[in-house]
Amino acid sequence: MLRRAIRTIRRHRLTGLLVNITPSAFWLTVFFLIPLGVMFYYSFGERGAFGEVLLGAENLGLQQYRLFFAPSDVSIPQAIWWTVAWIVESLLPFEFSLAAGEPTPYVQLTLKSIAYGLVTTATALVVGYPTAYYIGHIAPEEYRNLLLVLIILPFWASYLVRVYAIQLLLSSNSLVTTALGILPFYEAGTSLMNTQFAVFTGLLYIWIPFMILPVYASIEQLDFTLHEAAMDLGADRFEAFRRVIFPLSMPGVVAGSILVFIPSTGAYVIPELLGGTNSQMIGNFIANQFGASGNWPLGAAASFVLMGVMLLSIWIYQRYGEGDLV
C-alpha cells in the first residue's frame, strides 16, 4: 500500500515535483541559503572592542563596504580614480604617477587575486587547448580513453596531497630545482617555495584539467570536414583553424575559462601552503578576518565582493558563451 501511494504521488505532476525537490531544497536552504543570509546580514554590522559582531540599529550600515573600497577621508569617485590610476601604473613599464594616492589594501589584494586568476586561465588555455585538440582530433581513437584517464588521474588523489607534492617539487635541492640549474639566471638547489611562482604553479597544476576537459568535449563533437572545406576554398591550415575550428570550439573555451578563473581567483589553500607574505590572495584575507583578526563584518563584506566577481564571471559566460558548463 505504501509503495502504491508513493507511486501515485510521484505520478501526479505537482506532488511528484515537490517530492523530488524537497530533500535537495531543504539541504540547500539549511546549509547554504540561511548561512549566506546570516553572513550578508553580518556584513552590515561592526566589530566590537573584543571581536564581537555589533548588529544594533546604530551599528548597521555600509561602513564595511566603504572601508573595503575607500579610506574614510576619501570620496568614492576619488577612490575609483585612484584604483584606475593604480592599475594603469602597474601595467606601465616605467615609473609614472597618475594619482595622489592608492586604492585600499583590500582592493589591491582583490585585483591581485583577479590577476592571478587571469594569468592562470590564460596559461591553462595556452597549454590545455593543444592538449585537448590532440586528444580530441589527432590521437588514435584507441588511445583517447587512456589519455583522458591520465588527465583525470590527479583527481584520484586528495587536493591537499597534490599541493604537498608541489611543495616537495619546489623545495630546495629537489629534482626540479636541481634540474633548473642549467638556466643561467637560476642557482641550482634554490627553493622556489613561498614565491608568486609557486602559487601560480600550484594554481595551474590543480585547475588545468578543468580547461582541458570542456575544450575536449567541444572539439570531439566538431565536424572536421568544415576544416577541409575551408582549405579547399583557399585557406591555409592555420587560417582554417582560426576561422572555423577555434570559433566552433569557443563554448568549451569559455566554459573552461570560467571553471579555471573562479576557483583560481578565490583560492585559499594554495597561496596559504605555497606562497609567502607577498603571495597572499583575497581568500586568505577573508579567512584571516574570520580567524585571527576576528573582524567578521569586514570578512563578510569581502566575501560578498568576491562573490560579485564570481557572478560577473558567470554573467560573462552566459552573455558570450553557448551551451552548458560541460
TrEMBL record:
<keyword id="KW-0812">Transmembrane</keyword>
<feature type="transmembrane region" description="Helical">
    <location>
        <begin position="113"/>
        <end position="131"/>
    </location>
</feature>
<feature type="transmembrane region" description="Helical">
    <location>
        <begin position="79"/>
        <end position="101"/>
    </location>
</feature>
<dbReference type="GO" id="GO:0055085">
    <property type="term" value="P:transmembrane transport"/>
</dbReference>
<keyword id="KW-0472">Membrane</keyword>
<feature type="transmembrane region" description="Helical">
    <location>
        <begin position="240"/>
        <end position="262"/>
    </location>
</feature>
<feature type="transmembrane region" description="Helical">
    <location>
        <begin position="298"/>
        <end position="317"/>
    </location>
</feature>
<keyword id="KW-1003">Cell membrane</keyword>
<protein>
    <submittedName>
        <fullName>ABC transporter permease subunit</fullName>
    </submittedName>
</protein>
<dbReference type="GO" id="GO:0005886">
    <property type="term" value="C:plasma membrane"/>
</dbReference>
<comment type="similarity">
    <text>Belongs to the binding-protein-dependent transport system permease family. CysTW subfamily.</text>
</comment>
<keyword id="KW-0614">Plasmid</keyword>
<keyword id="KW-1133">Transmembrane helix</keyword>
<dbReference type="InterPro" id="IPR035906">
    <property type="entry name" value="MetI-like_sf"/>
</dbReference>
<feature type="domain" description="ABC transmembrane type-1">
    <location>
        <begin position="110"/>
        <end position="317"/>
    </location>
</feature>
<feature type="transmembrane region" description="Helical">
    <location>
        <begin position="168"/>
        <end position="186"/>
    </location>
</feature>
<feature type="transmembrane region" description="Helical">
    <location>
        <begin position="143"/>
        <end position="161"/>
    </location>
</feature>
<dbReference type="InterPro" id="IPR000515">
    <property type="entry name" value="MetI-like"/>
</dbReference>
<feature type="transmembrane region" description="Helical">
    <location>
        <begin position="198"/>
        <end position="219"/>
    </location>
</feature>
<dbReference type="Pfam" id="PF00528">
    <property type="entry name" value="BPD_transp_1"/>
</dbReference>
<keyword id="KW-0813">Transport</keyword>
<feature type="transmembrane region" description="Helical">
    <location>
        <begin position="21"/>
        <end position="44"/>
    </location>
</feature>
